[in-house]
UniProtKB/TrEMBL annotation:
Biased composition (Basic and acidic residues): 227-243
Domain CCHC-type span(s) in chain numbering: 218-233
Keywords: Metal-binding, Zinc, Zinc-finger
Protein name: CCHC-type domain-containing protein
SUPFAM superfamilies for the chain: Retrovirus zinc finger-like domains (SSF57756)
SMART domains cross-referenced by the UniProt entry: ZnF_C2HC
InterPro entries assigned to the protein according to its UniProt record, in alphabetical order: Znf_CCHC, Znf_CCHC_sf
Superkingdom, taxonomy of origin: Eukaryota
Region (Disordered): 1-20, 138-184, 227-254
GO molecular function terms noted in the UniProt entry: nucleic acid binding; zinc ion binding
Length: 254
């Protein structure tokens, strides 16, 4: 048996088979150009899919035709797109499909006369009916003064006599002769167009909008005291037909 000196030593220049494979040499070498694991087209496709997945919601969108891109387009990592908020291209070159939000809720409307939300005051059926009934009944009496709390007497007018002289341009005579004063005083206190009270304007009216004798009218049965959606006859008819009541069931106003 040989001693320790007889143990064969491995030649340092002789590498193991695992370290001399072409794959290991190619991975540890330093070539002039290192190719990425993904191509530019694959990176762009992954970014586009991620943006679509992040921005897609349950809303309704209108899809526009997709933008045609240049096949020779170069991926630029320092270029930002203002359309899809991605990198590598400009907004004019963006391949992302444009989506326009179309499921917008209609603007809020509210009638300041009857308080309903399906029309405005100028198209209020109850307001027109109320005005017609008022004109037919000849009820043109003035409403009692309902001013601010603590006010029992209408305030006096804040307008004063202000003499004005109508002069033309460069000292020429105007509509009024020289020296003749015109009385611009307004008779009576300030009146509110909303409640027909005195002492305040419409924008600062503390009273309710609805008149005292206001009664809602039903367009389905032409009855008083309820709206058309609360009409018992309409609900009974809807229960029999098992479907919504169409607009043809409304009673045409004379």
């Amino acid at each position: 048996m040989g001693g320790p000196g007889s143990i064969p030593m491995k030649d340092p220049g002789q590498g193991s088979p695992a370290l001399t494979t072409p794959a290991f040499v190619a991975a540890t070498s330093t070539p002039g150009e290192v190719k990425p694991a993904l191509t530019e087209e694959q990176i762009l496709e992954l970014v586009t899919q991620a943006i679509k997945a992040a921005t897609m919601t349950q809303e309704t969108y209108t899809v526009k035709p997709e933008v045609t891109t240049n096949p020779n387009q170069v991926f630029r990592s320092n270029t930002w797109c203002g359309k899809c908020h991605g990198y590598g291209h400009l907004a004019s070159e963006c391949p992302t499909v444009s989506r326009v939000f179309t499921d917008r809720s209609p603007p809020r409307m509210r009638c300041t006369f009857c308080g309903r939300t399906n029309h405005t005051e100028d198209r209020c059926y109850n307001k027109r009916a109320y005005e017609e009934r008022t004109m037919k009944s000849g009820d043109t009496r003035e409403r009692p003064y309902t001013g601010l709390p603590g006010q029992g007497v209408p305030p006096t007018s804040r307008w004063e006599n202000r003499p004005t002289y109508g002069y033309g341009a460069q000292g020429q005579g105007g509509d009024y002769p020289r020296g003749a004063a015109r009385d611009q005083r307004r008779d009576g206190p300030i009146q509110c167009w909303r409640c027909h009270g005195f002492g305040h304007t419409q924008s600062r009216c503390p009273n309710e909008k609805k008149p005292i004798d206001y009664t809602p009218l039903c367009r389905y049965c032409s009855g008083e005291g309820h709206f058309d959606e609360d009409c018992p006859k309409r609900r009974a008819a809807a229960g029999k037909e098992k479907g919504p009541v169409g607009s043809s069931n409304y009673v045409s106003s004379p």
